[in-house]
Amino acid sequence: xxxxxxxxxxxxxxxxxxxxxxxxxxxxxxxxxxxxxxxxxxxxxxxxxxxxxxxxxxxxxxxxxxxxxxxxxxxxxxxxxxxxxxxxxxxxxxxxxxxxxxxxxxxxxxxxxxxxxxxxxxxxxxxxxxxxxxxxxxxxxxxxxxxxxxxxxxxxxxxxxxxxxxxxxxxxxxxxxxxxxxxxxxxxxxxxxxxxxxxxxxxxxxxxxxxxxxxxxxxxxxxxxxxxxxxxxxxxxxxxxxxxxxxxxxxxxxxxxxxxxxxxxxxxxxxxxxxxxxxxxxxxxxxxxxxxxxxxxxxxxxxxxxxxxxxxxxxxxxxxxxxxxxxxxxxxx
Length: 333
Ligand SMILES: [Zn+2]
What we know:
Layout: E1 6-16, E2 22-32, E3 39-42, H1 72-75, E4 88-90, E5 93-97, E6 105-110, H2 124-145, E7 149-156, E8 168-174, H3 179-195, H4 199-207, E9 213-217, E10 220-223, E11 234-238, H5 250-267, E12 272-280, E13 289-295, H6 308-313, E14 316-318, H7 322-330
Helix pairs in contact: 2-5
């Protein structure tokens, strides 16, 4: 089944103060995600790009930070008995339950002993240890109750929704999934039932020679999606389904790609980001997928990029199309 890349461009007209009040127009492009049909608007100008002159974020010195090594053992919770350990650890990473859980099983993985790392200093080995630490907990949760939906997520810096600047991941494991995971899974199952193929394998076949392909890190291929979810969205498709073992070498491959995407963000002066690695158990239609998006840079008076379209309309908006930024990301692969 051919993958459909559907888009249409409209023109919004006005008499412009920038052109002596002559009639002017700006394009608004409407794109549909080929898998889910969700709409993304590509507009002329919107995303609050970084202000180079104000590049020193106020991150504090770690005093009173619950995730710093001096505090973590006293201030963070310990796992329930089925996990088999009070807290997890792997390299510099330390994991414990989320004191404010988002799902049946919900934890935090602190990535570094350092209170703060610039976005360009979150290397693959740190990220891979964090993912492995998260997966050790994920497997304990699955063994305990057979939950189907897993995600390993990161908010980095306040513009990305993080209340703690200390670098950390959050895993969620439950039988409910998120709206996004269930919508994606339903569409993946439909595609698989129709074609016998996974959507993601077919997408990579379609995109590998095209303008949105970014590159490969071992067993993971990366591209800029046709209808991005948010600014500078990059998607990685690992060659695994289900929930990888913490020892699986694909974790280093995923981490290497994330490091490369973060190097691209850093190069643009963007230091805040989100990523989500989505995993569904026992579902051949649904391989692992990791999505990384940029958020506004953490600087005084930064402007949030979630407004009524995302908050209330479940709509997506970007101002750089994937065909334009994919080659720039590819330069870091
Ligand atoms: Zn800290």
